[in-house]
Amino acid sequence: SSDTACKNRPLDLVFIVDSSRSVRPEEFEKVKIFLSEMIDTLDVGERATRVAVMNYASTVKVEFPLRTYFDRASMKEAVSRIEPLSAGTMTGLAIQTAMAEVFTEEMGTRPATSNIPKVVIVVTDGRPQDQVQDVAASARTAGIEIYAVGVGRADMQSLRIMASEPLDEHIFYVETYGVIEKLTSRFRETFCAVNVCALGTHGCQQVCVSDRASHFCDCYEGYTLNPDKRTCSAVDMCAPGRHECDQICVSNNASYVCDCYEGYTLNPDKKTCSAMDMCAPGKHECAQVCLSNDGSYSCGCYEGYTLNPDKKTCSAADVCAPGRHDCEQVCVRGDVFYSCACHQGYSLNPDSRTCSRAITSSLVTTEDACKCEAIVALQDSVTSRLEALSTK
Predict the structure, then answer these.
(1) Using one digit for the tens of pLDDT, what is the confidence trace for 23-77?
(2) Contact 32, 40 (CB under 8 A)
(3) How many CA atoms lie within 13 Å of 86's alpha carbon, on the beta-carbon side?
(4) What separation in angstroms does the CA of 303 have from each of 134, 179, 313, 320, 337?
(5) Consecutive H or E run containing 173
(6) Tens digits of per-residue pLDDT, 270-299?
(7) Most C-beta atoms within 10 A of its C-beta, which of 19, 62, 174, 316?
(8) Do the Cβ atoms of 309 and 334 come closer than 8 Å?
(9) pLDDT digits 0-9 by tens, 318-365
(10) Backbone angles phi and psi of 79, in degrees to 5
(11) How many whole angstroms from its chain centre is CA 368?
């Protein structure tokens, strides 16, 4: 009845119906009733909505293209004559054929300049036996809006792969062919809405806002509308003045998190940072001395040790290395410290550093010749002591 027909937006609408073996003849009759009822709700006409019907199983048949009928009665008559094809479920092939043979100007599709939405409604109860993903993607890229109607055992994943976004507006499911007419009113709301945003032809990337018979685009939080008034760009949440981070701001898809420089930790407020005690036990790798330095640290060594090239471990210093001691003649290494000694014929001065030549002539006198042996023995023992010291 024309009074219930949709006077709103003209469409180039193609029904693709599955008539494979799993669809029983009485169920296929229900599909045809659904098509007839859909035709009744549409404002059908050459300048209004044009309708084509395709039938598929393992082969694809264009029952009638967009250019053939421009009145409801003839269309419904043609629908009533459609016979099921039986056999497989080549959904991908059917969509491919729609692009190649139905959505062409010679077959009645209006040119792109007319801005008439191209819409496909696929009705299936099975799982495609061919690759539907790439075909559906290229159809959507070509500007074809795809609605997927699943019945009974239909594979939901395949419907999701086929349908246009947003999926919850483009996928319909019914338990049986017996209740498929239920969908007529849902499609009627979709196609007849003055609400351009429900049609999916608005071109907004993120949010479509209806405004009487018009619409405008908007963006999710953290995004801004680009100059084209359709697409959105993520706001740089780390731009100066946009965040509250003390040290480092890390942008995170339309929001942000704060972080700290090395040697600092994030405070519980998740914004400010505190310098860590880098010399706390277990935090540093110094073998002997750790020197904390505003968020970092350096290593040192105890007296008598030097820092190795790894800047962490220490080795006992060679206390007798040139320039490290102040012995005039012989430096004798201890564990950490050193002592001084003199070469043979010299004796250590009271300063424990310098040496003087030993005065041997005064030790032996002619008067005390009898003590000579004892003195020589003493000298020998002192000399060997000194030698022993100097070779340590």
Answers:
(1) 888 889 889 999 998 898 888 888 889 999 999 998 999 999 999 999 999 999 9
(2) no
(3) 1
(4) 75, 93, 14, 14, 10
(5) strand 171-174
(6) 999 988 788 888 878 899 999 887 768 899
(7) 19
(8) no
(9) 888 888 788 999 999 877 788 999 999 999 999 999 999 987 655 545
(10) -60, -40
(11) 102
The answer to whether residues 308 and 285 touch, using CB atoms and an 8 Å cutoff, is no
**SS3 category, 163:** coil
* Tokens at 165, concatenated: 């976004």
- Which amino acid would we find at residue 242? R
Residue 200 — left, alpha, or beta (φ > 0 → left; ψ -120 to 50 → alpha)?
Answer: left
Task: Identify whether the C-beta of residue 340 lies closer than 8 Å to the C-beta of residue 353.
Answer: yes
- Taking the CA atoms of residue 30, residue 10, residue 196 and residue 185 in that order, the dihedral angle to the nearest 10 degrees is -20
Question: What domains are there in the chain, each with its CATH number?
Answer: 6-194 (3.40.50.410), 196-234 (2.10.25.10), 244-276 (2.10.25.10), 277-317 (2.10.25.10), 318-362 (2.10.25.10)
Query: CA 183, CA 174: separation in Å to the nearest integer?
Result: 8
Sheet strands (E) in 237-337? 248-252, 255-259, 264-266, 273-275, 289-293, 296-300, 305-307, 314-316, 330-333
CA distances from 65 to 17, 91, 200, 251, 377 (A): 14, 18, 23, 51, 133
Determine the distance from the C-alpha atom of residue 254 to the mean position of all C-alpha atoms in its chain, rounded to a whole number.
Answer: 13
Torsion of CA 213, 219, 224, 226, to 10 degrees: -50
Angle at 291 between CA 286 and CA 293, to 5 degrees: 125
